[in-house]
Amino acid sequence: MTKTDMAKLHFGDTPRQNPCAQCGTPIPKPDWIEPGEGRVSYLWTCHACNYRFEAVAIFDHDIIAHPPLAA
Question: Which residue stretches belong to region Disordered (predicted)?
């Protein structure tokens, strides 16, 4: 699985109703999604208490296919 495939897969399966890390109120969707090397980061903002936090999904290194390095 390439980084692009991972991002497409995860964007189609965007987490919803994540509870706020401060007050527990469900948040409908993340404000920002950023795929990275073996991970996807989500930025959440709670509109009930105005708390902002980041959650990171980390993928098993073995399932991510990395392109070969340039010579």
Answer: 1-21
Q: Give yes or no for a contact between 54 and 44, defined as CB atoms under 8 angstroms apart.
A: yes
Structure confidence at residue 14 (pLDDT)? 79
Query: Is the pLDDT confidence value at 71 over 80?
Result: no
pLDDT at 62 over 70: no
Q: What is the DSSP string of 2-59?
A: -HHHHHHHHHHT---SEEPTTT--EESS-SEEEEETTEEEEEEE-TTT--EEEEEEE-
d(CA 13, CA 67): 24
Q: Which amino acid is at 40?
A: V
Each domain of the chain, given as residue ranges in start order, spans 3-63
